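Marked as duplicate of an earlier ticket. Keeping the data here for the record.
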Amino acid sequence: KQVNNLIGYPEGCGGTFPTGGSMSNFMSLVMARDKVNLAIKEQGISQKIVAYTSEEAHYSISKNASFTGLGKANVRKIKSDGYGKINISEFEKQVQLDLANGFTPFYLNATAGTTVMCAFDDVAGLAPICSKYNIWLHLDGAFGGSVIFSDRYKYLVDGINLTNSFCFNAHKTLGAPLSTSVLVVKDKHDLYNSFNNSASYLYQTHDEDFNLGQTSFECGRRNNALKLWTMWKAIGTNGIADIVEQEFKLADAARDYVKNNADYTLYSFEESLSICFNYKDFDPEDLCTKLYESNTLMVGFGHFKNKRFVRLVVVNCENSLDDLMQFFTVLEEFTQQNKHLIKKI
């Protein structure tokens, strides 16, 4: 209820604690599918339905399409802009094209913090299109959705109250133990419609609000809710906001370091927790591999718009500015000592 209050969902909303972001996205797709025709639960998919997501979205969207019977071929991957955000005009053009070809558009997965660039899709711009064509709007905030706690950065998900469902992973940016994922829905009946099932050996006490198996994919589970509850109880909303804002502060410092050093090339942008860069002319994939194999640093690489780069993700608020600068010092010293062994671009 407190998460729903933060994002502005109305009375009658609901939610649950799935096992992770992939499961949250899966559940949202199932609810959207059943919203098209509840008979799908019993009879399977018999009509031409199609879902949409960004080309920069999490890989779970394609997997989930196969699990739900939709099929990967019926997921339209919409091109992104230069920042990694879904192109809104391209999305509507694709919807209109699918309608003309006899498809029923039913689901859009938008992202609050794409995996590589940490881009935030324009939810406020996407919502009217989804409303116009009766498309379920899900916001996958597994990476960046925790900005809902921060008054300073909540604007990155403006329009979140217009979504049908939203999820975020407290075990990512908030540092909660694995796994701590939250899925909320505007109408709790959508959870019941998709996930309830009769079982005489279960559900013998209490009402539906306390029988979590009626509103989620899982039956047996760990007490994942306790992890977020104890954190929230201990430090409050302001304390969680401090975590989020500290990470953005560290990301800004790392970005400034890269921008102000001629040996670096920056590929990411402001208000992102991903710092994407190349150092001198070293091949980023080979550099990251050799840093890892030598037990020097563990940092990944990424791809965006035919560019490859080192991808530093700032999601630990307990890191200090000195820790962050040490990362760059170690990387620079390693390349100097091993410059003849690392491939060049």
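See parent ticket for discussion. The chain has two domains: 2-222, 244-337.
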